[in-house]
Amino acid sequence: MPNRRSIAATALLIVSMAAGAQTPPSLKNIYRGDFLVGSAINADQITGKDSRGDAVIESQFNTISPENALKWENIHPRPGVYDFDIPDQYVAFGEKHHMQIVGHVLVWHSQTPAWVFQDDKGNLVDRETLLKRLHDHIQTVVGRYKGRIHSWDVVNEAVNEDGTMRQSLWMKIIGEDYIAKAFQWAHEADPQAQLIYNDYSLENEAKRNGVLALIAKLKAQGVPVTTVGLQGHSSLTWPSIEAEDTTITAFATLGVKVAITELDIDVLPSATSQQTADVSLNFAQDPKLNPYFVGLPISVQQELAKRYADLFAVYLKHRDVVTRVTFWGVTDGDSWRNDWPIKGRTSYPLLFDRNGQPKPAFDAVIRVATEGKPAN
Ligand code: XIL
User: Fold this and answer.
1) Which of 46, 209, 290, 353 could form a disulfide with 345 if both were Cys (CB 3.0 to 4.6 A apart)?
2) Which residues line ligand 1 (CB under 6 A)?
3) The domain spanning residue 22 has which CATH number?
């Protein structure tokens, strides 16, 4: 039975199709009122070098995330040295196009320079020194973009697959309260910003339970965490639709919002039996694991389309708690999945192909909004 939102989405689709066969409908318009739809963007897109990518971003998305530009190693490469050139252009890009601007990421164990944790002699610093460095970093970066970056990934990937706390240098040197402190300092620097705990594989029960316990504890202490980010680095078989549904419901029950922060669906054979998005993995090249370098068979295109449709149907079901869905990259050619966890593969994880053209998966995601159910 069509409801009011699906009638509105269908009307929009008809109007945009009538506007010209060359103009595809847009994700941001079709899901307006449900959740924002966005993409991580890279330095070429931020600076305007990739005009084809920018055209897709401007027409399709109403929120952006910085793929690498705001990570510690780029924005704060040396002690006392901040490089705001690309980050400033990133924020200006989002403002020019009236987008929700996401900051990624304040505290992470990856892409953080070694000096952060070391003294002049290369020894690990003490708790007070690292807390001070963390405080200065958050105050400087969040403070600079106060009121302009609307949503921050404050802490990324603090929990292991079995639900225990990851023994990162943040954890080892400061202790578990590095998380609470990071959220408090981000909130002080910008009281209006949404503050996110972001992680991968939360659809797996053990890890989800660890993060649920962490968020419950933070909320009980009054720590200003507003949202849990499900990264969403997925495959054709993982996560199950039931697990996605259960995961969103579980976090909603804690009283936080849910954002899908880094969505992509890999169609390539898996290099590992682990379900992970650990950026440090790097497996040996193997032609058997790169089967589609000349093109993606239509049957796999369709399988990808069906997977995307099924996942979007779950997001739509939970539109009261899902604030946004962000793809990790614009076109297949941009995706980190071409080089992770094996370098030099040809991957097809997104909705736009290497020429910036919408794929069958794009049509399927549009159809979910108009029909309110997965396409077959
Ligand atoms: C990835 C980027 O896409 C790559 O360009 C970079 O080399 C490594 O990091 N989880 C995250 C993201 O939170 O920051 C990662 O992005 C992908 C996994």
Assistant:
1) 290
2) 67-68, 156, 231, 262, 277, 279, 336
3) 3.20.20.80
pLDDT value of residue 314:
98
Domain boundaries, position 222? 4-371
Q: How many domains does the chain have?
A: 1
Residue 40 above 90 pLDDT? yes
Quickly state the pLDDT bin for 376 (edges 50, 70, 90).
Answer: very low
Domain contains 119:
yes
CA distance 132 to 125: 11
The answer to whether the pTM exceeds 0.85 is yes
Residue nearest to atom 15 of ligand 1 (CA): 279
Q: Confirm whether 376 is domain-assigned.
A: no
pLDDT of residue 229: 99
Buried b (16+ CB within 10 A) or exposed e, 39-74: bbbbbebbeeebeebbebbeebbbbbbbbbbbbbeb
User: Would you say residue 39 lies in a domain?
Assistant: yes
Count CA atoms closer than 13 A to 138's CA, side-chain side: 29
Q: Is the pLDDT of residue 20 over 70?
A: no
- Residue nearest to ligand 1 atom 7, measured at CA: 336
Q: Which are the catalytic amino acids? A: 157, 262
Q: What confidence score (pLDDT) does residue 21 get?
A: 53
